[in-house]
Design goal:
Number of helices: 10
Strand order of the largest sheet: 4-5-7-6
Radius of gyration: 26 Å
Structural class: alpha+beta
Number of domains: 3
Strand content: 5-15%
Distance between the termini: 48 Å
Order of helices and strands: EHEEHHHEEHEEHHHHH
Shape: elongated
Number of strands: 7
Length: about 280
């Protein structure tokens, strides 16, 4: 079996590697690009004796060898304790970043390790991960969906957040934008579900062309969506109620009579959310 230990250093008290328990059947692979520095492209393998010739041939046919200076640097840092010190510092840095993420995303469900450089945000069943990811790209934030990592036929709707490579202030700002975007799409997803459950098309027949009737319909939808959102998301304190209310009115524009549009023309809407209304 193969054992990839590139991220083993992040665990403060890791279990014994499989190679220590079954050395005759385990090929242990690790390196220094994750634990020390990205540019230190030096790896190492511990393998059963019978596997060594095959591994050597594979190395000669692919990477051939690392640069001599880089190999000497890596070996020296392993011997003098530099690697151990840097691994401790990086583990502490990862814990700080996870604590920031836990604070900013405290109202959202997440899956993470306290010393990991990434976390997962599972999304509500009404929310599509690809739409959230594309919306965040427009905010200059790149995240991954679960699709490239999934082993099942249907990938769960979740996004993966990498917490490294940016300073802490930038990380906090980016996480706040992620939190707000997930909150917005969750609200709109629940709203879409509310529209279906309240039989929007049937309700429209009864409101006529009077603006007050349309206001009542919008308030009914918002109230149902907000109650459902709060039940499902627990601790979330949704800070965009007024913005989402404006989007709600925009989402049923295609059904609005002219009298309602004229009456509501002075409402302030957030144009940055207008591109999100298509999820309904």
């Amino acid at each position: 079996m193969d054992e990839d230990a590139a991220y083993a250093f992040l665990a403060e008290d890791p279990p014994a590697p499989l190679a220590a328990l079954a050395p005759e059947t385990t090929v242990y692979v690790s390196g220094l690009s994750k634990s020390v520095a990205t540019g230190l492209r030096v790896g190492f393998v511990a393998a059963p004796r019978q596997c060594v010739p095959l591994i050597e041939r594979a190395i000669r046919a692919t990477t051939w060898n690392t640069a001599g200076v880089m190999t000497a640097l890596a070996c020296g840092w392993l011997d003098d304790g530099t690697v151990t010190r840097l691994e401790i510092e990086k583990r502490h840095d990862a814990m700080v970043r996870q604590s920031i993420a836990a604070e900013v995303l405290s109202g959202l469900r997440s899956v993470s390790h306290p010393a990991s450089y990434f976390l997962w945000l599972p999304l509500a069943e009404e929310v599509r991960a690809d739409l959230v990811a594309m919306a965040l790209v427009r905010k200059h934030i790149s995240v991954s969906t679960a699709e490239p990592f999934a082993t099942s036929e249907h990938a769960p709707h979740a996004i993966r957040l990498a917490l490294g490579s940016v300073d802490l202030a930038t990380l906090r700002q980016a996480l706040e934008k992620v939190r707000d975007m997930v909150g917005t799409y969750t609200y709109l997803g629940v709203l879409a579900s509310s529209q279906r459950k309240l039989h929007l098309n049937t309700s429209i027949t009864g409101v006529g062309s009077h603006p007050a009737g349309w206001r009542t319909l919008v308030q009914q939808l918002e109230g149902h969506a907000r109650r459902t959102h709060q039940r499902r998301c627990g601790k979330i304190v949704y800070r965009q109620t007024q913005r989402a209310a404006a989007v709600t009115a925009r989402c049923i524009t295609r059904f609005q009579p002219p009298a309602y549009r004229r009456d509501e023309s002075r409402r302030t809407t957030d144009t940055s959310l207008s591109t999100s209304s298509h999820v309904l």
